[in-house]
Amino acid sequence: MLETDELTDQRNEKDYLLEFSDSVDLDQRRQYIDNFLDSLYKEALSSSLELNPALFTTVAQQTYVTSNCKYTPVQSSERKPHKCKTCQESFSELSLLQEHKKTHQTEKQFSCTTCNKKFTHSHQLELHKRIHSGEQPFLCSFCGKKFTFRSTLKCHERTHTGEKPYNCDICGINFSQPSILSTHKRTHASETEYKCKVCAKNFSSKSSLQSHAVTHTGVKRFQCDTCDKKFGILCNLKRHMRTHKGEKPFHCEICGKNFTQSNSLQEHKRRHTGEKPFLCNYCTKCFARKRDLIQHERTHTGEKPYSCGTCGKSFSQVTLLKTHERVHSGVKPFNCDLCGKSFTQQSNLRVHKISHLEKKQYHCDTCGKDFSQSSSLQQHKIRHNGRQPFQCDICGKKFNVRGNLQRHSRIHRGEKPFHCDICNKNFSQSNSLREHQRRHYREKPFSCDLCQQQFFVKSALTAHQKSCSNKHVILCLIVGN
């Protein structure tokens, strides 16, 4: 075992520090000390003797507090001043750095028999195996949710306790996760001279600003050879190419799922931890994805940056614009695989498919109509017997179903809870909203069997069929059919 006095005999650390002159600044002093500690470590390795990491912590402490040095003791401004030259990871103590360096030098001899991934230590392999086995030994005492790793459980439990142990040393705001703090700190770091003149967005480097500026020009010079899709930035094309090659290099160690892009992996991991690092500047809401925050904040600002090239109407979300554009194009990309009917929105298709899936086993003996629920049949039968037991206290109007009375009462109260996301108009009844939205999407689901004319609402079809059937009868008499 090396002794302290043997090391200091080789190079006296006090004399080493006294070599500084008045012109040497704080950073240079710190660099000298780091070099000194590195030299001690190398000399210890070359001696072929056992190295005691704690020894260097002692020497480091002596170096900073020596009473013989005429200069002010050097204090590190960073919590982790010792950096690994191989991977750039930083550590608070030199001994931790030396232990970390072994991971680069040591052969990864522990291999997973399921996926062949290799590890330096056996305990790392044992933790990894839980991904394949599905083992989740760590239970949340608040909600009962289970986790594969203790660290993931601790992150999750902070969503219950409200604990925020990670503090921003610039503005003093506290955060529950270190990753949220890192994301937040970028807002301080990005307050630089590199600002986009078009949208006023800040960037920490000139190259980042230049890459961003391309998005405003609309120029897309980089084209995919497989699908001809174009991109303004080369790195976006490279990321896109992974979808064709099937490459998914970014791996979630919690559930084993793979992703083509690193940001997709980061978003996915937040589902495990419950992190929502993106905070609304106008209210207390927070979001797991930045794009969700941007869309939400537009509800406060009223911003509608997406404009229809045909009619000039503006929208807050690009998805709403695309849906609206189908009004002009007539495109209905969502098809029912059971009956072939097409829809402009996937949500409308899902509602339509329910009509195929439901078994209508309750039969009305009066009119022959079938229903999927007994309660629906009972409500329907009231229409046949003419009873209207539910009366409005304000205007005296009567209804055969309580739900119809409740919907009617909204008219008197001025309630309009059903909102159109396209034009912001409000409605007192959900069916009124559906009928209204069909006009935006140019959907005409009600078709006349005689002349094939289509209508937005069923009442218009019923009125049409009366005149159309009369015309059909007259036509049949004329032609003799």
UniProtKB/TrEMBL annotation:
| GO CC terms in record | nucleus
Positions of the C2H2-type domain: 82-109, 110-137, 138-165, 166-193, 194-221, 222-249, 250-277, 278-305, 306-333, 334-361, 362-389, 390-417, 418-445, 446-472
Q: Does the keyword Transport apply?
A: no
Concerning Pfam families, the annotation shows: zf-C2H2
Give the GO biological process terms: regulation of transcription by RNA polymerase II
- Name the predominant localization: nucleus
Q: Where in the cell is it found?
A: Nucleus
- PROSITE patterns linked to this entry: ZINC_FINGER_C2H2_1, ZINC_FINGER_C2H2_2
Keyword Transcription regulation included in the entry's annotation: yes
Single annotated GO MF: zinc ion binding
Keyword field: Metal-binding, Nucleus, Repeat, Transcription, Transcription regulation, Zinc, Zinc-finger
> To which protein family does this belong?
Belongs to the krueppel C2H2-type zinc-finger protein family.
Q: Report what the protein is called.
A: Zinc finger protein OZF-like isoform X2
**Which organism is this entry from?**
Octopus sinensis
Which gene is this protein's source?
Answer: LOC115210880
